[in-house]
Amino acid sequence: MCLCTLIFPDLALGKNAKEIRSGEIWPDNQGVHVNAHGGGVLYHKGTYYWYGENKSDTTSSAMVGIMCYSSRNLYDWKKEGVALPVVLDDEFSDITKGCIMERPKVIYNKKTKKFVMWFHLELKGKGYAAARSAVAVSDTPQGPFKYIRSERINPGKLPFDMTETQRAMLDTLDADKYKQWWTPVWYEAINKGLFVKRDLQGGQMARDMQLFVDDDGKAYHIYSSEDNLTLQIAELSDDYLSHTGKYIRIAPAGHNEAPAIFKRNGEYWMITSGCTGWAPNEARMFSAPSIWGPWKKHPNPCRGPKSEITFGGQSTYVLPVAGKKDAFIFMADIWRPKHPSDARYIWLPIQFENGVPYVEWMDSWSLDFFDKNNLNINAHQKMLAIVMKAMASIF
Questions:
Q1: Got the DSSP string for 222-277?
Q2: pLDDT tens per residue, range 328-354
Q3: Which of 76, 101, 248, 299 reaches 20 to 30 Å from 225, CA-CA?
């Protein structure tokens, strides 16, 4: 009998029926495909809560609201219902039926004992011009969440790490001089803060977004800003319901969206995508020793078939698996704009090579992968130690 059979007898007997299969229909407890797109997952008291956009068959506008599903094992999902519904009886509401509600993320505030949701909001009939962030709050993870407000971010505030020289340079940036986009001169102006200055009084734009709670309980809002040209990271208040005014810019004029962030061994990692509408493109990756940077760009972390287009998907979240060391799941959406409700999900384990994350395509896998992976790493380390000890005794 082989060693793997001794260690993992259920695999040998075919008992491990639970699998994650990316790109396929994921039925909930009612047998219906999970409808929680552009989402994120919150782990709370032994249960995972998956929040995402409810997509209809014909439009990506919000006709229902933001959904919630729950699971204790990440395989079987129970439909909890609409966590934050659209407003049906007030055309003037920010979240009236037909608005755009995207990328919802929920975090738990241990001090206030509230569940806080932020999402990207576009006003009904205004396309993507509003570029607002909206916040809602609930006493329970399932909701219903109470809508509070929507806003642009940190009005009147410049990035805290912008030097006096850089701030002075903003005065020389006249928007009338840069009406022709996509030229080298225009890119340089964007890099220097042309759109930061443009949006200073009303607040910074925010579209594709992410939330991250650090080890010390501080929370951060990561979003695509400056007409999707530059990522920004903004600190949230202690109650997570507003911004403190402290923020930075990442990869100015780099055209990044769909940020998904996680932390391992004190290093911050972020996977993003380029900006090509609903069409997939090559993933990007950044890392930093601090949430405030400096952020360094890495090559595409994806490997395998269609890695050059992120397996046909776009990043939305990185999910830490509870109770497993260095276990992170890369979550992405395969958009289907002609039939939005049929959009599919990509969930793949994040692996590490010399400390650098990568994501490799797998047709199917189970959470046991993390146990086997750690077992192989530990075995390799032990074998290496034995070899080194033997070599030391020889020489």
A1: EEEETTTTEEEEEEEPTTSSSEEEEEEEESTTS--EEEEEEEETTEEEEEEE---T
A2: 999 999 999 999 999 999 999 999 999
A3: 299
